[in-house]
């Protein structure tokens, strides 16, 4: 076990599907089951299904290693049943592998939420303020599992698969060196040059963040780039404007509670109640927030905003602000489950096509084929922090020649973090507190 974790640590493996939690830390536990997340939560993205199709054997190997590290007896790979090529590849790879099985899911949102997935696989609910391990589970993205396998071959994380879609001529999924600029990927997809008329969502339509600076780099957790016109309604919704949102809450929110009724985590008994966040904001009274514990269980999936609210309000943003405010005030969640799973839990499973239609995203639901050849770039800017924890510390200086895979930044002594490696051959052009730039 120690050898597995050390190699994962040296290779700089982090969670590829979310916030980038260092994998060697996550696996330092005793688990009953390891769940592989290949459900691709965000609409329009294709990274997970192509990874499963093309790297099924590596994924199974990584899953077995994760099970070995945690002592888990079961491994389950969750993916969507309509990913036919990926399912076929996984079925071949799983054959005769004791303790490993597939769970095929419908194309609903948010199928890829790890707490939803833990419940669907184990029947257990992750408590507020808790982690999947509180239900005996460890959840790892399929790309993370592939990277675990490669770590055992002493191959560090230097590339990332990214789907580029939206207002581009040729939607595509690319394998690119970490540190490649967004603009380079958007150009490859035939998209617009950066201007005031377009913005990009980094990560996906629902949970992705707006980005107007396309010189920024792809990181270990970047899974999608969705290019939109600046006048797309989603851009206004995602633009942070607290005064506007409060004014609309006062004028329009009728407390119908449909946002709460459709919340999948509320249906799990976690007391996530966006309508009460809207009520508290509209009245300027935190006492109206209800069970503050439930605010911390919101996963920011955005379903309440992008589908449930018939008035175009933004309860998801309000929940995020409430969570941040509570944290600043020193409030912490209690580790508990508020209520039993709702009998209508299955009714919160929203078909992805309906969500896309409501968000005016259905027109972008085109094939984004995977280009097997890695994109060649002349320079990269590799961030020193692409993960939860402390930023890595540079171990190279300007002028140093490096080869792809060379260690260029290491976890600070005594801190939680992840190592960083050169993603191309070249010379170190610059090193600062935030990134290392390499030029061929």
* Most strands sheet: 6 strands, mixed
Number of helices: 17
Strand content: 15-25%
Percent of residues in helices: 25-40%
* Radius of gyration, taken over Cα atoms and rounded to an integer in Å: 21 Å
| Overall form | globular
Distance between the termini: 38 Å
Number of DSSP strands? Answer: 19
Coarse structural class? alpha/beta
Low-confidence stretches: none
Looking at the chains present, what oligomeric state does this protein adopt? single chain
Q: Give the strand order, joined by hyphens, for the main sheet.
A: 9-8-10-6-7-12
What is the typical, i.e. mean, pLDDT? 94
List the helices and strands and how they pair.
Elements: H1 2-10, H2 23-26, E1 33-38, H3 47-54, H4 56-70, E2 74-80, H5 84-94, E3 100-105, E4 108-109, H6 114-122, E5 137-141, H7 142-152, E6 159-166, E7 172-177, H8 182-188, E8 198-202, E9 209-211, E10 224-229, H9 233-238, H10 242-252, H11 258-261, H12 264-270, H13 274-283, H14 292-295, H15 303-308, H16 315-328, E11 350-351, H17 352-358, E12 370-371, E13 379-383, E14 393-394, E15 401-402, E16 407-410, E17 420-421, E18 426-431, E19 435-439
Helix pairs in contact: 1-7, 3-5, 4-7, 10-13, 13-16
């Amino acid at each position: 076990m120690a050898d597995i974790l050390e190699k994962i640590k040296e290779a700089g493996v982090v969670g590829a599907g979310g916030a980038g939690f260092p994998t060697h830390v996550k696996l330092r536990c005793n688990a009953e089951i390891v769940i592989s997340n290949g459900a691709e939560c965000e609409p329009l993205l294709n990274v997970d299904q192509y990874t499963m199709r093309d790297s099924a054997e590596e994924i199974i190997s990584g899953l077995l290693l994760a099970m070995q590290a945690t002592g888990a007896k079961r491994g389950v790979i969750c993916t969507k049943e309509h990913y036919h090529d990926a399912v076929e590849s996984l079925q071949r790879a799983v054959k005769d592998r004791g303790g490993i099985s597939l769970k095929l899911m419908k194309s609903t949102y948010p199928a890829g939420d790890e707490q939803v997935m833990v419940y669907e696989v184990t029947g257990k609910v992750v408590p507020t303020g808790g982690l999947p391990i509180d239900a005996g589970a460890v959840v790892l993205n399929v790309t993370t599992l592939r990277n675990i396998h490669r770590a055992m071959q002493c191959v560090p994380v230097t590339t990332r698969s990214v789907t580029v879609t939206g207002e581009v001529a040729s939607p595509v999924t690319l394998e690119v060196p970490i540190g490649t600029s967004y603009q380079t990927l958007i150009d490859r997809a035939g998209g617009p040059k950066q201007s005031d008329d377009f913005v990009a969502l980094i990560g996906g339509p629902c949970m992705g963040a707006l980005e107007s600076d396309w010189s920024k780099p792809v990181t270990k957790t970047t899974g999608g780039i969705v290019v939109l016109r600046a006048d797309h309604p989603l851009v206004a919704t995602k633009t942070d404007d607290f005064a506007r949102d409060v004014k609309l809450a006062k004028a329009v929110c009728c407390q119908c509670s449909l946002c709460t009724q459709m919340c999948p985590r509320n249906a799990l008994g976690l007391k996530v109640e966006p309508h009460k966040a809207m009520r508290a904001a509209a009245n300027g009274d935190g006492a109206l927030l209800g069970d503050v514990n439930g605010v911390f269980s919101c996963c920011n999936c955005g379903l309440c905003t992008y589908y449930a609210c018939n008035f175009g309000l933004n309860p998801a943003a309000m929940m995020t602000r409430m969570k941040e405010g509570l944290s600043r005030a020193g409030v912490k969640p209690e580790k508990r489950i508020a209520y039993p799973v709702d009998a209508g839990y299955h009714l919160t499973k929203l078909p992805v096509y309906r969500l896309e239609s409501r968000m005016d995203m259905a027109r972008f639901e085109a094939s984004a084929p995977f280009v097997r050849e890695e994109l060649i770039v002349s320079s990269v800017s590799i961030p020193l922090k692409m993960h939860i924890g402390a930023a890595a510390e540079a171990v190279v200086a300007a002028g140093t020649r490096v080869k792809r895979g060379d260690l260029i930044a290491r976890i600070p002594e005594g801190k939680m973090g992840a190592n960083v490696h050169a993603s191309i051959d070249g010379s170190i052009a610059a090193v600062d507190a935030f990134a290392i730039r390499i030029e061929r």
